[in-house]
Amino acid sequence: MAKYNYNWNTLESGYLDEEGNFKLELIEDEADKLGRLFANGGINRSQRYEKLSSSQLRKFYNEVKALDAQITEENFSESLPFILMLKAKANYAYRGGGRNKKIPESFKDFIIKNVEIVSKERNYQSFDNFTTFFETVVGYFYGHGGEGNR
């Protein structure tokens, strides 16, 4: 069970509002909350604060951007398995929360929740929205001092 303070319900209905527009609260509020959480840390099972390292953030973000550069509306279906692999990579980096983990639980959950949205909606626009949301979270991460996290 997660010990960090973030409610994933905002993402449950995806990135778009009822009119098909990107939910501005994701960009204005939720990305800020997540960037702060990843930069400043959440409490883990042993009651210590866990920060996301800037190198792990860059690793996942660069992978998403590399996929974004390759994926188009035309090849989205055949590229979906590579997007879904991000969940496995996040679980591997988390390593069950043990001593050898590379990322905190909060970041693992972030990757998984967002990939699940793309998997559920199964369209290029959803992946593009994930990329935009992730980019905004990265900006807030550095804005909250995450660049020094090791």
Helix content estimate: 55-70%
**Counted beta strands:** 2
Structural class designation: mainly alpha
Shape: globular
Distance between the termini: 25 Å
Mean pLDDT: 92
Radius of gyration in whole Å, from Cα? Answer: 15 Å
Domain module tally: 1
Relative strand content:
under 5%
Uncertain spans: none
Q: How can the largest sheet be summarized? A: 2 strands, antiparallel
Strand order of the largest sheet: 1-2
Number of helices: 5
What is the string of SSEs from the N terminus onward?
HEEHHHH
Architecture overview:
This protein is an all-alpha fold and 150 residues long. The chain has one domain (33-148). It has five helices and two strands, in the order αββαααα. It has a two-stranded antiparallel sheet with strand order 1-2. A hairpin with a 5-residue loop joins β1 (42-43) and β2. The longest helix has 20 residues, at 124-143. The relative contact order is 0.22. The mean pLDDT is 92.
